[in-house]
Amino acid sequence: LALFVSAIGSAISFAILGFTHSLTGLWLSLVPQSLFNHAFNINKAVIVDFTKSSEERAAELGKLSMAAGLGMVAGPALGMAFISTHEQAAAAAVLFSILAVLLAALLPAIISPDEPSSSSSSAAAPASEVPAAPVE
Fold first, then answer.
1. pLDDT tens per residue, range 83-129
2. Alpha carbon distances (Å) from 13 to 6, 16, 30, 73, 124
């Protein structure tokens, strides 16, 4: 659900950007993206849930962080190169809307709720199974 909301926030942001002709509209287009952009944290949680060992988890989280850093550096340059008109920003809004629909349709099939996650196996033991501290 959160990835879906994040994609919708991006679509709304690009739609505002595509139809604005003022500096105020440009600043307003940043609001939905800023409020609903939680994709990085959600992706980290998915990696933690689906990796078995701590070494594999660290490697995958490192790759995710590297990709996020690369996106922060290359993203604005690519955005400037590919989105220079209002029509292109509107097209990006359509693409993010399609992404949101695909996430809503395909992600539940990938992550089924009846599969146990690895984070539940590392949960703390119930209080009845924890040995009591010695009393002095």
1. 888 888 888 888 888 888 887 787 766 655 555 444 444 444 444 44
2. 11, 5, 6, 20, 41
DSSP-derived secondary structure for 2-54: HHHHHHHHHHHHHHHHHH--SHHHHHHTHHHHHHH--HHHHHHHHHHHH--SH
**pLDDT for res 58:** 92
Q: Which residues contact 112 (CB under 8 A, 6 or more apart)?
A: none
Share of the chain above pLDDT 90, in %: 8
For residue 87, give the amino acid letter: E
Distance between CA 21 and CA 33 in Å, rounded? 19
Residue 26 to residue 34: CA distance in whole angstroms: 13
Residue-level pLDDT at 124 = 43
Burial class (CB in 10 A: 0-12, 13-18, 19+), 97: middle
* DSSP structure class, residue 29: T
Cα distances (Å, whole numbers) of residue 106 to 1, 22, 46, 121: 12, 37, 15, 26
